[in-house]
What we know:
4-stranded antiparallel β-sheet, alpha+beta, 434 Repressor (Amino-terminal Domain)
Amino acid sequence: MEQTPAPFDLRLAARLASLRLERGWTLETLAERSGISRATLSRLERGETSPTAALLGRLCTAYERPMSRLLAEVEADPQQFIPPAAQPVWTDPETGFRRRGISPPASGYMTELVEGTLPPGAVIAYQAPPVAGLEHHLWMLQGRLDLALDGTVHALSAGDCLRYRLTGGSRFHCPGPETARYVIAITRP
């Protein structure tokens, strides 16, 4: 049975298509820049499939924007007060990773808050940062997380805080046994 895409997924697909067209890129050009096949890009832009975190990471790198900014561009008008029901949530269909924009990016603000929930055993790897030099402050709320940055693995547990500038690839792994839940404050350079 074929499911109808959610409104957010359709807006995301439209935004991905518009970003490519704004730059005057063909699907082939974007495929070369992102390492994603032309066929997959076409399906993503038509809303026929939902992107994984890894695919969104590659697209954000190609478009030189943080994932949170891309997802915020898909949302309706930014608000000052953001109750839980208005915080955009995206779930990676491949890993089950769930990303909530607690305080999504908005015009005039340099920092945003993101809650990440990663199931036991799940891994998300990004080849490169979408924007070099993003400042991150990751605060663990629950579980354990192994975060690899520039060849160093940081083993984080509930209550730990890690601050860093994102300059290279990163890898998030939840070793379990419980779900890893954390908040990241992200500030643009």
